[in-house]
Write a structure and sequence with these properties.
Blueprint (H helix, E strand, L loop, with lengths): L18 H16 L4 E3 L9 E6 L10 H4 L4 E13 L4 E6 L7 E8 L1 E7 L5 E7 H14 L14 E3 L12
Antiparallel strand pairs: 1-2, 2-3, 3-6, 4-5, 5-8, 6-7
The protein binds nickel (II) ion.
Nickel (II) ion (NI) binds next to helix 3.
Length: 175
């Protein structure tokens, strides 16, 4: 946090055949998994281009959901080039977020709970999905990175910007 690249608007990707792109994605996947993160955006590794990776595994979703409801809440490891999203309903949801660019902290962030996103895979094929819950959150968090926004800038209550070591004091409210 504070490096100028994290505050910039990233550039659209025009050449998917660039071998550097593949290497970058491999590095990003490794970094994300090493850090036990759910997502990473290219500006976080100082590449100001519109590329994000993320996953929304089943163990991050609300356990109270039926299998049918849970479908939009999960996503496999996804590489998304030039992503865009639209908000599908006015409902907002709060959740704790962390970020590899804001180490050691967690913040309570309210975001739209239901979105549709689009982009391309590294193979150039279009990807379009509806997302809810943690899945919707991680996609919005990563897309924010492409516009130079870190999650603390999305917070409305900075008393809920806390150290990771203090998360035990903050149980998530039940819906
Ligand atoms: Ni982040």
């Amino acid at each position: 946090m504070g490096h100028p690249v994290l505050g910039q608007k990233a550039e659209a990707i025009t050449d998917l055949a660039d071998p550097e792109l593949r290497r970058l994605v491999e590095d990003m996947v490794e970094t994300m998994i090493d850090a036990n993160g759910a997502g990473l955006a290219a500006p976080q590794v100082h590449e100001s281009i519109r590329l994000v990776i993320f996953q929304a595994p089943a163990n991050r979703r609300d356990p109270g959901l039926s299998e049918a409801e849970a479908y939009d809440h999960t996503a496999p490891l996804t590489v998304l080039v030039n992503p865009v999203f639209e908000v599908l309903s006015p409902e907002r949801e709060g959740g704790w977020e962390g970020c590899l660019s804001v180490p050691g902290l967690r913040g309570w962030v309210e975001r739209p709970a239901h979105i549709r996103y689009r982009g391309m895979g590294l193979d150039g094929k279009p990807i379009e999905r509806v997302a809810k819950g943690f899945h919707a959150r991680v996609v919005q968090h990563e897309c924010d990175h492409l516009d130079g926004i870190l999650y603390p800038q999305r917070m409305s209550d900075l008393t809920k910007l806390i150290f990771e070591s203090e998360t035990k004091h903050w149980l998530e409210p039940k819906e």
